[in-house]
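Troubleshooting: if your tokenizer reports a length mismatch, compare your output against this known-good record of 149 residues.
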Amino acid sequence: MATRHRQTRGAGNTDTLGARIVAYFIDSIIASVIGGGLAFVGFILAGVLGSVSEGLGALVLFLFVGLAFAGAVGYKVYFEANGGQPFGKQMMDIKVVMDDGRECTWGASIIRNLLLGFEGGLIAVIVIAVTDDSQRIGDLLGSTVVVKA
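Known-good structure output:
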């Protein structure tokens, strides 16, 4: 049985589903460590400052929870917009590019990563498996594809 390698408008080989799943787990662990670390620092500071002023403690906690979210999402966005490869994608030798083959932009990376939270893992895998260029919903809206590097 011959393997069909998908190609999209000059972007490259998009037959990457298995590699994407492994890269997703690797990058999710890294993003969780970043976000969890920031949240942990926030809880500690909020506890210390909350003993002085409840309002100050709550404000610090709110700020650090926001930083935790920004750090977790920002990890993937930053590396996708600067070469297309967070660490997990580097390990799996795949990268994110625009669907016309150009480097991934900041805006496209933000769109595809913010939508990942709404897609859910199984829905993303199903959409990747049924679309011609192996794109999930975030890729379709961000005009990106994941290709072999």
